[in-house]
Recover the amino acids of this structure.
């Protein structure tokens, strides 16, 4: 079911690629507008231009056609459009590399425009610190989707909502019903009450921390292995962070034990330990070949659960272990995962409520596009993984809904603008939805974006500052 509302906002942006003469007889405009509403908006712009004595000539490539025409090639080939409409930041970077960029930052400040743009318009008008786009229009996503079974279970009638405020007022009831539905979707490995029976081995001692290899019991026939880093000279109870690797990663890539070369993790667990955090980096089986993972996904499905249910059970035991250490503050335990570890951060954090802060690195995106897009190479639809497909999941949860159930606990989305796991558009789209929920709930300091110029990696700039603020300042 769906309801029209002003749910999210995006800016479409226009930039002159060739000068427009005062007496131009023909103006070539490249755009991708094709829907009825888009064409109606286009006609308004075209009419205004015609009134100035110009003639508008369309170079229209509908954005849903699958056809790709390179604007940069048109420019370098000597046959550029007079203007083009796009929000893709890579085009502007390519033009900058050719010396064809026009930096409008000072101009916007001079005329007072920048201060009057909506924050999202300022953000989307900026590429690599420079405002290089001209905002043209606001594009409204006019649909809010809800699950009727969840609404009924929560005692809520979405058809009765007359405003966004009424919808937000029902959020606590919907959240509780969503979380119950989410637990049913993921499934649960029962806690049989067995002791942790920790087995530890000291393997490294430095001036700043001690490193241990640890093995914990989870349930019958299941154990969790990991690296434990304990800072030296702790005073009182310290904050702790569970640091999760991704596909084909290991705890040692995070803690640095035995490592001779850098990885996308940049040993972020070791760096957290050197900052005074107790760190536990568990081994969760995300290993190549992918058939192994698919076998686990099929077995979990046969048992009525998702494969991540086992990872959640292991994480629960790791948190049990950390919370029981005399030098750890159980109220200040966080989770930081990169890549498949970011996937784990999203899917596990609603189930483990003792996690006070969560960093999702290199994974947050528009989940609907990520698992259904049939023409984008990064889509899981074009990959052999079966782990990401669950019955009726898109009518139930995307990344936005899942992380909404974590609120008001703190969440940080770490994202590199050149991360090939997702696309800038998918991440921006999902972030705008999550930020809208955050703003309505008044949680501006609890749900944050740590975006950086980089690739698929744990950059740890904004994310470390986030953990310091949430975990180390909470007393």
């Amino acid at each position: 079911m769906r309801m029209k509302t002003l749910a999210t906002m995006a800016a479409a942006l226009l930039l002159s690629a060739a000068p427009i003469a005062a007496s131009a007889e023909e103006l070539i405009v490249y755009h991708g507008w094709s829907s009825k509403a888009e064409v109606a908006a286009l006609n308004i712009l075209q009419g205004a231009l015609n009134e100035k004595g110009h003639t508008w000539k369309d170079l229209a490539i509908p954005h849903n056609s699958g056809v790709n025409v390179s604007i940069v090639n048109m420019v370098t080939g000597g046959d550029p459009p007079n203007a083009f409409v796009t929000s893709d930041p890579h085009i502007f970077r390519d033009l900058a590399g050719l010396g064809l960029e026009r930096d409008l930052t000072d101009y916007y400040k001079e005329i007072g425009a920048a201060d009057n743009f909506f924050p999202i318009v300022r953000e989307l008008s900026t590429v690599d610190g420079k405002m290089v786009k001209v905002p043209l229009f606001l594009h409204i996503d006019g649909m809010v989707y809800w699950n009727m079974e969840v609404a009924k279970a929560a005692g809520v009638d979405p058809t009765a909502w007359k405003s966004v405020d009424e919808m937000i007022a029902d959020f606590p009831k919907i959240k509780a019903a969503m979380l119950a539905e989410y637990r049913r979707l993921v499934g649960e490995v029962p806690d049989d009450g067995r002791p942790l029976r920790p087995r530890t081995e000291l393997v490294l001692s430095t001036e700043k921390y001690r490193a241990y290899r640890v093995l914990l019991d989870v349930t019958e026939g299941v154990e969790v292995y990991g690296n434990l880093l304990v800072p030296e000279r702790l005073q009182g109870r310290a904050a702790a962070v569970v640091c999760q690797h991704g596909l084909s990663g290991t705890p040692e890539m995070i803690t640095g034990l035995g490592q001779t070369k850098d990885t996308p993790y940049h040993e972020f667990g070791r760096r957290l330990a050197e900052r005074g955090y107790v760190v536990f980096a568990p081994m969760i089986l995300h290993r190549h070949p992918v058939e192994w993972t698919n076998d686990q996904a099929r077995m979990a499905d046969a048992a009525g659960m998702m494969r991540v249910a086992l990872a959640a059970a292991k994480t629960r035991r790791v948190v049990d272990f950390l919370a029981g250490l005399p030098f750890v503050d159980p109220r200040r335990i966080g989770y930081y995962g990169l890549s498949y570890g970011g996937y784990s951060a999203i899917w596990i954090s609603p189930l483990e409520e003792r996690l006070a802060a969560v960093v999702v690195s290199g994974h947050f995106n528009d989940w609907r596009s990520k698992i259904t897009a049939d023409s984008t190479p990064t889509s899981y639809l074009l990959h052999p993984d079966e782990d990401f497909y669950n019955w009726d999941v898109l009518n139930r949860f995307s990344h936005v809904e899942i992380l909404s159930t974590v609120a008001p606990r703190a969440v940080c989305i770490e994202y590199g603008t050149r991360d090939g796991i997702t696309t800038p558009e998918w991440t921006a789209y999902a972030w705008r939805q999550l930020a809208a929920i955050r703003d309505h709930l008044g949680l501006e300091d609890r749900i944050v974006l740590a975006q950086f110029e980089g690739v698929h990696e744990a950059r740890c700039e904004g994310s470390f500052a986030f953990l310091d603020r949430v975990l180390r300042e909470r007393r």
